[in-house]
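User: These chains co-purify. Model them together.
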Amino acid sequence: MHGRPRKSATPVDENASALKAAKIRSLQSQFLENHHNHIYTKEALEINAKLIECNPEFMTAWNYRKLAFEHNISSQSESEKADSDHIKSIVDEELRVVENALRKNFKSYGAWHHRKWVLSKGNSSTERELRLLNLFQKQDTRNFHAWNYRRFIAGLKNISDEKELQFTTDMINDNFSNYSAWHNRSVLLSHLLEKKVEGYFPKEIFLKEEYEFVRNAVFTDPDDQSGWFYHLWLLDQTVKVDMPNLVSSWPPHGSEITKTTFPVILLFNEPVEGVNLHTVSVQVENDITKNTTWSPLSANKFKCGQAWLTHLTIPPGEFNSSKIFQVKISSEYPQGIISLNGVPCSRNWSFAFGVSVCHDVQPEGHSLRISMGEENFSTIDVNSNMMNFLKSNFDLATDYEQPTSSKWKSELIASEIDQYRELLSWAECKIGKLTLARLLMANDAMITDTAVAPNMTHVEEVLQLYSELMELDPTHYQCYKDEYSLVFLKQVTSSKESLMKYCCQYKESMSLNITGNVCLRFNSLSLSRMGSFERLLWVQSLDLSHNQLHSIEGLEALQLLSCLNLSHNKLVSFMALDPLRFMKSLRVLNISYNEIGAHTVDTRRYLCSSPLSHTLDYDKRFEEFATSDEKVVNFWDAYSVFSGLDIMQLDITGNAAVDERFVLFLVKLFPGLKWLDGEELH
Amino acid sequence: MGELAAEQHAKYILKVEKKKDDIESVLMEHLRINGVYWGLTTLDMLGKLSAVDQETVISWVMSCQHESGGFGGNEGHDPHVLYTLSAIQILALFNKIEILDIEKVSNYITTLQNEDGSFSGDKWGETDTRFSYVAICSLALLKQLDKINVEKAVKYIISCKNLDGGFGCTPGAESHAGQIFCCIGALAITGCLHYVDKDLLGWWLCERQVKSGGLNGRPEKLPDVCYSWWVLSSLIMIDRVRWIDKEKLVKFILECQDKENGGISDRPDDAVDVFHTYFGVAGLSLLEYPGLKAIDPAYALPVDVINRIFLN
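Assistant: Joint model of the two components:
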């Protein structure tokens, strides 16, 4: 099937082919007859062996050999059973057939498995197997069947990880461009680290040497990918914080909010399970609340998520009080909060804030249409209350214990940065640039651990590197663009000063009870990816229009969001809007001028809640809701995402999926809808 | 180069279906049921499924069923999950899954799940993440996914995740695009893509695109049209397909056509076969090439077939 040249068949070719085919066909039918009649004689086995030689991919033929093996072993006479040579000869014959088949096709799954199966019956020689492996691994150093078989033999014969590690060293020294050897090296080192074998634990012992080892390879041939991927693994080993951690929350620590009912948001660095009453305690004044439920902002059947939510309400009896209630949220039993890799949270955290009851609840009578146009904003007066509002919302909760960074890590990273800056001075190497960008980000992230505000020392250089990569490697332009967007947002949200430049104050005439006082305006920034949500939990009004967003993954953490503008982006379906299903505060939504319904391929199809991924049952209520007029398949995802929301103002024009029928469907779906595409509804 | 020779490819598939006496056909007899799935799905994407006699195909497929409930690659061949999935997929194309004894087929598959959550291909015990995908996809199509231990199945697949973000056939095995497709597909179907580092894997996958625009299966290897499916569908499922140059890939696939005789090969000017014809057309469908029916990246069946099964 692979690598055969295309040529027209001549009559001579066709004849020869037909003759050969007829021979094999005859072998096949003889074999199948023997197989169905359980005939395992020497002659039958020979027919089978011939067939396997012609076609080592024929699984049934290998199955037959196993049946024959079992049959012939179990039907031995007493004298044969005592004669170990007899058994050995049967085993050897099987191994011979496998070896023949492998010589024909060293990638045959059936052949390798048969060998494993035979060997697991006993009677194997380590020497022989390693000899066979050396033969195949010399022929093709990337043969993953051979590498897997090698792992099997090492397990069967208790060959040490260190010995196998030396084998990878030899293979790499022989030829740096051996991704398979580098891969196996990383697997073996991980095992040695896990088992805390002396000389490999703690990891700083071997990391420095490995960095040197891979540097040789990469400096010798910077265009070969193998070493670079290994370097990425080393970097990950050096910097990763292999533990779930709370990175942000709302309300912010030390703030004072004025609400009767409000959300409490916990945002972790990765998806976790186990956030509940036992692991997290909620104290209102000095009473520990017993009836709060935490739910993950993610629909899946495993109750895990990166953002977790609960709602608190000031007890009704207290509504007329003017006092400020102290609320404290703290980790009661952090070890119960576990990452997807099974690692428990081991640090305690807590945050506290004051709540005063909201007396002046503005009635939501007839509202004006809310616009995010320039004319509706004024810049924030630096001395106003607004700044204080933002300050308190923005400051990092200082009660989170930050992981401390080790000296060896920062020294190692700093040294790597120097080395790769040097490489890039004489080699125009795209992965080299990418590696340097990653090293610089890792460096800054490590320093951040010990400070309150994120370190952005190298961010300009990193942005510059990604810009260069977009030009140097246009095939992967979007990959670099996405990373650029994320780094840019990190920079923008890293300090109050930089973030303030993107905040605007709504003018008094706007419906402030819906929009909030401040709008965060990230429009027209060429963003292809949205991020830094941990710094944006306070946002009520967000303008992301005129960007290049394909997805809004992570936006669900912004539970206070009531006004969202996503117009003029690249959202291709309602499934791309899936995070909105969790945003119950949303009242104003603009998704006009996207590409909803314009594509036959939906890349969010398996990343959202849907029956296709078994994360949501098909909602039968949709059929009751939809009239017979509407094409079920076209609107079920819109129904699924929107049916729990109370949207007051919606802009949706400029999307292929939106036609008259769809508009009628929406009006039915949002009974509270007052404005649609700029028109007031009655 | 420019165009997809849809007519020729349809003709090629119908021709291959009838050809049985040459050496290539004989050597593929053991996986004929896979071949039928590849051929028919391609015809459906080209809008030409009606050119085939449904009755004949279905009765032949059913003749491949073994008494254990599983299907063999051909009549009289031993059963295996790989062939069982193709049987189910073929019936799905014709909307005839109901003719199966669903319990019998499901039982065959569920008995192949091992203690650690992995799946064997058949009773002889070869374990591979390919079989995890095949089992999960089969049972999902039969609406019997709850008959296996999904949590353990997912745990096993995750144990095959490598440090480069990719997946191999067994724990510790090197990342390979084919295995990655199987693991990502299985995780997609079970709603577990949150276990995947999409940026890390997305980068490994997008680096499969080489200068010619084609995709290889792992670093420093040659491009091959079949990776237009394995790599591309994986990228689509994790929403990182923007990270490759789609136009260049379209061009590469079109260059692998035999426009005269029909069929697509692994590389330009190599011999064509049904396997690569299917993956080439499926790849083009994922790239939104005009005139082709959309194909679902996880179940590897047309989107309308999948929607019909799950959204009713």
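Chain B touches chain A through 90 residues (CB under 8 Å).
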